[in-house]
Automatic annotation (TrEMBL):
Coiled-coil regions listed: none
This protein's name: WD-40 repeat-containing protein
UniProt-listed Pfam families: HTH_VMAP-M9 (PF26355), NB-ARC (PF00931)
Domain vWA-MoxR associated protein N-terminal HTH: 7-86
Originating organism: Tolypothrix tenuis PCC 7101
GO molecular function terms listed in the Swiss-Prot or TrEMBL record: ADP binding
Every NB-ARC domain range: 134-230
InterPro entries in the record: HTH_VMAP-M9 (IPR058651), NB-ARC (IPR002182), P-loop_NTPase (IPR027417)
Amino acid sequence: MTAVELTFEQAMLVLDRVLQTKHLSNIQELVLRLCWKGYTYAEIAESSGYDDDYIRDVGFRLWQTLSKALGENIAKSNVKTVLRRYYANLVPAESAGSSITAFPNAKPQRRQDWGEAIDVSIFYGRKAEQALLEKWIIQEKCRLVMLLGMGGIGKTALSVKVAEQLQSKFDFLIWRSLRNRPPISALLADLILFLSQETEENLPETTDGQISCLIKYLRSQRCLILLDNIESIFREGETAGHYSPGYEGYGQLLRRVGDELHQSCLIFTTRETPSGFTAREGETLPVRSLQLTGLPQLESQQILSSKGLANSAAETKQLIQSYTGNPLALKIAATTIQSLFDGDISQFLQQGPVVFGDIWVILEQQFHRLSANEKQVMYSLALKQTWVTLTELQQDVVPQISEGELLEALLSLQRRSLLEQQSGRYSQQPVVMEYVTDNLMGQVCCVLS
């Protein structure tokens, strides 16, 4: 009797049952999916854009994980046989003529892939933001939503929290990080295979064709796609939001998802507004953006309390203001205060600098991406230590730049969430100002030494 061929979807049902909460990562599932189709490691590496050795290492660890979970040696050569046997044992046959008849290939009610999404079981504030996003996505059917903010402000956490709240409204949900800069072809293949339940085998060769294929699924079913850290694919040393060479296809993806009619939604987080996005967004349009700022006093205090800090209201308020309610910066500072100052906020604040360790790293990453003109504007603002007008700023920037260049730099800094604006005047957040001042002093010292 010939056994019925096991589909990849059925194999994943077996692994979901066996692995329980320890699901495969997105790259492990990609390797398993393509191995299932007979690809070699070299072919997987070429098609996905990853290094050959990296794919081999992922494969090696994948077989180790499956071997441990299933209690027998698993390799590329026997994975189908073993999972077919497990499937038959887990699901009794409905007829004598087939060893695999349950779990038919019918579309499941819901399917989710959370990738490397973070745990948000402990989450502070953002109630208004959550309600607004739900209104945009569910009631007003927005197709493309940007969560914008500086590093550590909580964009990733908010994206996951909102996805958790809205998951029952979607047939498919998939969350992916772009931190490792996957080629657009690899991402599109990943999304299409997931949304098609691995039935779309002959993917178009062109990026435009692949996006058309993806939109076909966005139209036929309700899908929620979340892309994190999209700034990773932007160029450094230029004004904000320009795609790195070879990554222009991401801009094409965002444009078409925002412009074309479908019933799904793509949410992305970023520290920089992508080029071309601003022209498409609007309060009554299906493309929207949400600028995240620091947490209010109450929620910021909750973060400090969770770290065991119980100082006076004045000291707590000063600490929160120093970091303008940035959740990650507050967590880092609170840990340092507990470790080095016995939980005494006043002693920490007396030391002067509030930019250190991982907080410095976050700002360094963002400052490193600036163009030369943007850096000059940031230095000038830091030296002024107060709010300045456009005219005053143009006089202070050294070397002198034209008004057009200054406006371009200011607009770009706004798109990076590094600029504060108030009644036609400009300044910086305290923590940003301290970092830029220290950076400038370091350059001066290097020149003088």
